[in-house]
Amino acid sequence: GIVLRELTEMIIKNPDISPSETLPDSDPSVFHKRYLKKMRCLGEGHFGKVTLYLYDPANDGTGELVAVKSLKQENGQVPEGWMKEIDILKSLYHINIVKYKGCCTELGGQVVQLIMEYLPLGSLMEYLPKRKVGMPQCLMFAQQICQGMEYLHSKRYIHRDLAARNVLVENEGLVKIGDFGLTKYIPEGEIYYRVREDGDSPVFWYALECLKENKFSFASDIWSFGVTLYEILTRCAHRQGPPDKFREMVQGPKEPMTVMVLIKLLEKQHRLPRPKDCPQELKILMEQCWVVDSAQRPSFKSLIERLEAIRQ
Ligand code: ADP
Ligand code: MG
Q1: CA distances from 249 to 15, 256, 265 (A)
Q2: 80: pLDDT confidence band, cut at 50, 70 and 90?
Q3: Are 161 and 152 in contact (CB under 8 A)?
Q4: Does 48 contact ligand 1 (Cβ within 6 A)?
Q5: Tens digits of per-residue pLDDT, 234-269?
Q6: What pLDDT score does 53 carry?
Q7: Which whole number is the average pLDDT over 81-100?
Q8: Distance (Å, rounded) from C-alpha 144 to C-alpha 39?
Q9: Which of 113, 154, 217, 254 stands the most exposed, by the fewest C-beta atoms within 10 Å?
Q10: CA 71 to CA 150: how far, in whole Å?
Q11: 136-188 pLDDT, tens digit each
């Protein structure tokens, strides 16, 4: 009220007083370490870990819950890829993409944490096996993922890690894409991104050309969407996931599963099986996401229409 107005008038009259000094909390995207109260671990992947915090500047328990992502290994300086992930999320605004809230910087910028909105139901991996999720809800989730992905592609980003573990659940009617750790920008006029990757890649979600030539494109996200759809339709059931299913396809149970073996399987036209209650038209749609010729795969725009028709 009064105090803030007087302060504002003071700043207008005296431009030398910077707002950041007089109003310490004027930038809502700056989170201070001392007000972050750790609640519990939410999950971790290969590179990052995500923790639930209460951000409580008033120190009376009235604060807000936020999800805080940090890098697993912190060694001195901030890796370039991590700042890219933060900048990408900061630039995305879509109902089906997790909301960026800000950053918490420590040690003069040597440690940076990403603050996001907290989605209480976790990822599809936690949500789907525990609930009775019918086909209409599965189709709705699938379509929402396509909507978030269509937006991402419209900004010329490829996700490269689309999977049930990276789709977050807000409530029974809304999912959002999270984890932009492998996301890359495809410059205008180019069609793919070539990477030299270590052994930590999510290979069972990768298109054939990603496994063989490290070529990532909009179409390789479509392949990963097909695998994500398979996960949704199996409700992320234990031992039904892509790694287990591909291992089952290998001849001898003793034969180790390698990227070479996976490539051979895919080249022989082996694909993930049809989930139990999966209608024929969905099975066809999934398999079109997995055609070898990437140019023949559907776009997210056409997938949205196809899913809409199936939902009718
Ligand atoms: P990584 O890059 O290490 O894979 P993710 O961003 O995928 O990290 O997060 C790891 C896990 O943490 C997710 O699979 C999910 O279970 C959980 N998680 C991530 N973000 C949120 C969030 N905003 N709200 C709730 N849970 C989250
Ligand atoms: Mg992840």
Answers
A1: 70, 12, 8
A2: confident
A3: no
A4: yes
A5: 999 999 999 999 999 987 767 888 999 999 999 999
A6: 98
A7: 96
A8: 30
A9: 254
A10: 28
A11: 999 999 999 999 999 999 999 999 999 999 999 999 999 999 999 999 999 99
Q: How many CA atoms lie within 13 A of 227 on its CB side?
A: 26
pTM of the shown model: 0.91
Mutate to test the pocket of ligand 1, among 49, 50, 72, 177 (most ligand atoms within 8 A of CB): 50
The residues that are catalytic are 161
Q: Which two tokens stand for residue 132?
A: 């009775």
123 lines ligand 1 (CB under 6 A): yes
d(C-alpha 288, C-alpha 271), whole Å: 11
Predicted local distance difference test score (pLDDT) of residue 21: 45
Residue 214 to residue 158: CA distance in whole angstroms: 14
Buried b (16+ CB within 10 A) or exposed e, 255-287: eeeeeebbeebbeeeebbebbeebeeebbebbe
Angle, alpha carbons 266-271-273 (nearest 5°): 160
Residue 178 assigned to a binding site: no
Proximal ligand: closest to the CA of 98: 1
Name the one residue in this structure whose structure tokens are 């066809």. Answer: 284
Nearest to 294 by CA among 237, 190, 215: 215
- The dihedral of CA 298, 301, 305, 311: what is its sign? positive
pLDDT digits (tens, 9 = 90+) for 20-54: 444 556 899 999 999 999 999 999 987 899 999 99
Residue 9: how many other CB atoms lie within 10 Å: 10
Pairwise CA distance, residues 142 & 202, whole Å: 20
- In short, whether 118's Cβ falls inside 6 Å of ligand 1 is yes
Residue 77: the pLDDT is 73
Tokens of 277: 């209650």
pLDDT score at 15: 54
